[in-house]
From TrEMBL:
It comes from the Bacteria. GO terms for biological process: maintenance of CRISPR repeat elements. Residues 19-41 are annotated as: Disordered. This is CRISPR-associated protein TM1801. Residues 24-33 have a biased composition (Basic and acidic residues).
């Protein structure tokens, strides 16, 4: 077990205002929603935003990171990148992919190069390769779900200039699909038990803590202009195995809906905010930090 990394429980409280935080490709990019009206944000969607921030080494954000990341940017590449060369990546893992040896893997270019593989794990495997190369990540994000059902608004976009040859105007029927208002909670977990398998370091975790507060602010788009992380709780346990049940921490920091929880909210004022852990839970953990205030 990596003695540097402490077990941690995290909770993001995300407010969505007139935005589509995560479109569903199976429903023409409608905001993700369960049959009971509860909204969803997938872990894949959120991790994509973190990867995009890390992968752009020339961006203002990356260049303003602490020196250790800027000077060693070749250690903070992204495995899950568009157009990746699979054969090249395979050679970075090992010269002999049919056999797996943990010590050699940890010393490989693959481990040293890809931040997302070290922290989130990887399922990268070519035909004939040893399954030992597949790794479960140290950090796992859960599905973000809204506290109350969400209302979805659909508008048709118009384009005066036209989008096809010979057309002077165009329309995109019901293309603008947004959640009017919703407050979502997304848990995440840091498990040092896997760090020795993926090569994850404390510096990798420290970078994650810098990324989370900027995930939406630096990834705004026309369909996602106003997604606010109200809180990003990061709670370190007293020991590597965990000193408090995760669910107690998550329940204690989840905002409480004021009024009828089955009706979609209209604003942040429809919730009772939670700004700290109760004293009895504080005594069970090492620290409870809101990354948004650091």
């Amino acid at each position: 077990m990596n003695s540097e990394i402490k077990r941690a429980t995290g909770l993001m409280v995300i407010e969505v205002v007139n935005s589509n935080a995560n479109g569903d490709p199976d429903r023409e990019s409608d905001p993700r929603q369960r049959p009971n009206g509860i909204g969803e944000i997938s872990p894949v969607s959120f991790k994509r935003k973190l990867r995009d921030l890390v992968g752009d080494h020339d961006s203002v954000f990356y260049q303003n990171l602490p020196e250790v990341y800027v000077k060693n940017s070749d250690h903070y590449c992204i495995l899950e990148s568009r157009g990746r060369d699979r054969k090249s990546i395979q050679s970075e893992m090992s010269k002999d992919i049919k056999n797996f040896e943990q010590k050699s893997f940890l010393e490989s270019t693959f481990v040293k190069k890809y931040w997302d593989a070290r922290i989130f794990g990887n399922t990268f495997l070519e035909e004939g390769a040893n399954k030992g190369f597949i790794k479960t990540g140290v950090v796992q994000f859960g599905v973000g779900t809204s506290i109350s059902p969400v209302n979805i608004i659909r508008h048709t976009n118009t384009n005066k200039a036209g989008v096809q040859e010979g057309k002077n105007a165009g329309m995109a029927p019901l293309a603008f699909r947004i959640v009017e208002h919703g407050v979502y909670c997304m848990p995440f977990f840091v498990n040092p038990n896997y760090a020795a398998k993926t090569g994850c370091t404390q510096e990798d975790i420290d970078l994650l803590k810098l990324l989370i507060p900027k995930a939406y602010d630096l990834n705004r788009s026309a369909i996602r202009p106003d997604v606010r992380i109200r809180h990003a709780w990061y709670i370190e346990h007293l020991n590597a195995l965990g000193s408090c049940p995760d669910y107690l921490l998550l329940e204690a920091l989840t905002p409480k809906r004021i009024g009828d929880v089955t009706i979609a909210s209209k604003s942040w004022a429809d919730y009772e905010d939670k700004t700290d852990l109760p004293e009895e839970l504080k005594a069970k953990v090492s620290s409870a930090t809101d990354l948004m205030l650091v």
